[in-house]
Amino acid sequence: MSVLARNSIRELRHRPLRTLLTVAGVAVSTAMLADMLMLAVGIQQSFGDLLESRGYELRVSPKGTLPFDTEATIPGWGALQDSVGSVAGVERVAPVLAMSVSAEVVEGGVDSREARRTLALGLDPGNRALYGLVEGELPGTGEVLLDARLAVELGVGPDSRLRLATASGFAGWGRSATVRVSGTGDFVFATRRDMPVAMPMADLQALSGLDDEVSFAMVRMEGDADPEAVRAGIVAASQRVEVVTLAGIADELDERLSYFRQVSVVLGSVSLFVAALLIGTITAVSVSERLGVIAAVRAIGVGRARVVGDIAAESVILAVIGGGIGIGLSVVVAGYLESILAGLPGLPAAVRFFVLQPASLVTAYALVIVSGAVAGLVPALHAAGREVTELLHREEP
Amino acid sequence: MTTSASGDRGGSRGGRGSQAGVGGTVVTAREVTRDYRRGRTRVRALRGASVTVARGDFLAVTGPSGSGKSTLLHLLGGVDLPTSGEVLFLGRDLARLSVEERAALRLREVGLVFQRFHLLPMLSAIENVELPLAAARVGRRERRERAAAVLEQVGLADRLRHRPSELSGGQCQRVAIARALANDPALILADEPTGELDRATSRRVLALFQELNAAGTTLVVATHDPELAAGARRSIQVVDGRTRP
Q1: C-alpha Rg value of chain A to the nearest Å
Q2: How far apart are CA A121 and CA A32, in angstroms?
Q3: Residue B79 is nearest to which of A7, A389, A397, comparing CB atoms?
Q4: 3-class DSSP state for residue B179?
Q5: What are the φ/ψ torsions at residue B238 (nearest 5 degrees)?
Q6: How far is CA A366 from the centre of its chain?
Q7: Residue A190: per-residue pLDDT
Q8: How far apart are CA A365 and CA A355, in angstroms?
Q9: Rounded Cα distance, A69 and A72, in Å
Q10: Which uninterrupted H or E stretch holds B58?
Q11: Tens digit of pLDDT for each residue in A58-67?
């Protein structure tokens, strides 16, 4: 370590309160910046990961919609499924009918018999792309699989009985059916409020009266198939449907979240600016207190670049310490904010707003260190750029 | 007006005297002027001052406040450049050197001592003395040994680890002198080195200068202190920006 750098560290230690306050300010700004970076990409990435984990590369939905976007359905699905299934590159087609229903405990419940509104998914029970089995068995005819949290809420379990009725305002309003609970599951797209139930497609179609209609279908491709080529093949098979690849959904999501991301970037930039301003101000104050020494050091022949570097080193030290603490703080704050935002309606509980990515943390840390160094360079260059004799005349009586 | 050196007495420290310029001259200032701008006013600090400092000289520069003593010292040491005239340091015209070249020259050939010491307050005595050695890229072990040796030379062998705040004014000035000596320069320039010291301490500093000069160090000291001026080998006066014998 150079002699001047050693002096810089001791200067910081010599003024503990000033140093502590600066480090605290930089830490808070860094935490804010890191959280904003995590927020800017977190929801997209976690949603993308969620979609990819299902193993179906394409989604077929009614024209102009996305899956779970509306209550619209695709009529005449039976014929369409054959067409989609015959497109080159398609390995499997998994249709889903999604519908709001009210669920009422018929027996075995521990609480009142009030109806609970929920989302029913009609599908092939063997297709577990949308859920995993927690307890019991997959639903057969006349059976449903409940989201595990819903089962707890209703106080039911395997072998309990529920009465499902189509909710008002939906097709087949007023129809109902009593079903047996075959088990509980963990539903991928469940939200905090919407805890779905799964049942065989035919049962839900019968309950809703929507024979031969589905809400959307998931399409799995053969290993070497090109998603765009398969998409084009399905579109050619039917003009009534929207076909999107996972990349297309990601783009759509990207567009919908662009304002969100812009706000994150602006707030992150403000945080970075505040950190730089703080470091720059403290360095400027420190430099002005030491102008005489700086002049003397330059007068004895220490090069301008070295003086500038050593003053900037003081700023970098503040940025490194404050930034490091800030990164740790950002993880804590992200966890807290995540717990608040997790209650946001309409988003799957598995989707995260703040995804802890090493890249985001490293970027935030690097940005703070670089901006701290730049902020420190300004007063350092200003001091080193002044005439030595002018400073000496000022400092010497 | 030219004021010549009175001669070359004593040996040279560490052989650096042999590197002194043509005819044993360390530095020569010829008819130098220096103008400063203070707002819209142009102030002429020097008006054609000339001086030659030979190897082994001990020159006192006296004169009233504001007469241009400090400015002359800054010009002799390459801290500043004249508005007109020339300064030849070891035969090199300082005006022809870049800022960084002049800094390098000062680092190796000039030792500066200030009235207010300007020691780095967070560094110990030995670390302060190490500063110019570190800047000259002297290795860690060697610079520590050399710094300790010059501190011993100025009588502070028992104060190596003390910070400036733990030293008296006289001791601080001796640390500053040790720092000036660290790179074994061809010339020591001291600007009012006893200005902040009491009489007894000033005498000790004068004795140290005389001792160093006797060992071959070339010194130019700007001072108001008649005792210090009398203790030099010779003196010149700066009055109204001009030098007088």
Answers
A1: 31
A2: 40
A3: A389
A4: helix
A5: -115, 120
A6: 22
A7: 80
A8: 16
A9: 8
A10: strand B58-62
A11: 888 887 776 6
Contact between A167 and A117 under an 8 Å Cβ cutoff? The reply is: yes
Higher pLDDT, A349 or B145: B145
A392·B74 Cβ contact <8 A: yes
Contacts of A109 (CB under 8 A, 6+ apart): A154, A155, A156, A160
Chain B residues inside the 8 Å CB shell of A396: 70, 114-116, 191-192
- pLDDT of res. B91: 92
In terms of phi and psi (left: phi > 0; alpha: psi -120 to 50; beta: otherwise), the region of A330 is alpha
- Domain assignment present for A128: yes
Looking at residue A51, its amino acid is: L
User: What radius of gyration do chain B's Cα atoms show?
Assistant: 17
Is residue A162 within 8 Å of A136, Cβ to Cβ? no
d(CA A166, CA B96): 95
In a domain, A125, yes or no: yes
DSSP A110: S
Highest mean pLDDT among A28-32, A87-91, A193-197: A28-32
pLDDT, tens only, A378-391: 999 988 888 888 88
Using the 3D structure, point to which of A173, A206, A239 is the last residue of a domain. A239
* Residues of chain A numbered 2-41 and touching chain B (CB < 8 Å): 2-4, 6-7, 10-11, 14
Residue A221 lies in a domain: yes
The whole-angstrom separation of Cα A7 and Cα A10 is: 5
Q: List pLDDT tens digits, range B21-63.
A: 434 899 999 999 999 887 888 888 899 999 999 999 999 999 9
Q: Do A3 and B123 touch (CB under 8 A)?
A: yes
Q: What is the mean pLDDT of chain A?
A: 85
CA dist B74 and B190 (Å) reads: 10
Structure tokens belonging to residue A182:
């075959």
Q: Of A210, A239, A268, which residue sits at a domain end?
A: A239
Helical ranges in A148-237 per DSSP H: 148-154, 201-208, 227-237
Residue A204 shares a structural domain with residue A281: no
Q: A263 with A301, same domain?
A: yes
Q: What is the residue range of A161's domain?
A: 64-239
| A224–B contact, CB cutoff 8 A | no
- The length of chain B in residues reads 245
With contact defined as beta carbons under 8 Å apart, do A62 and A73 qualify?
A: yes
Q: State how many domains chain A has.
A: 2
Give a yes or no: residue A379 inside a domain. Answer: yes
Query: A110 — contact with chain B (CB < 8 Å)?
Result: no
Sequence length of chain A is 397
> Do the Cβ atoms of A293 and B114 come within 8 Å?
no
Interval A214-243 mean pLDDT: 86
**Model pLDDT, residue A397:** 60
Assess A124–B contact: CB distance below 8 Å, yes or no. Answer: no
Residue range A188-216: mean pLDDT, rounded: 86
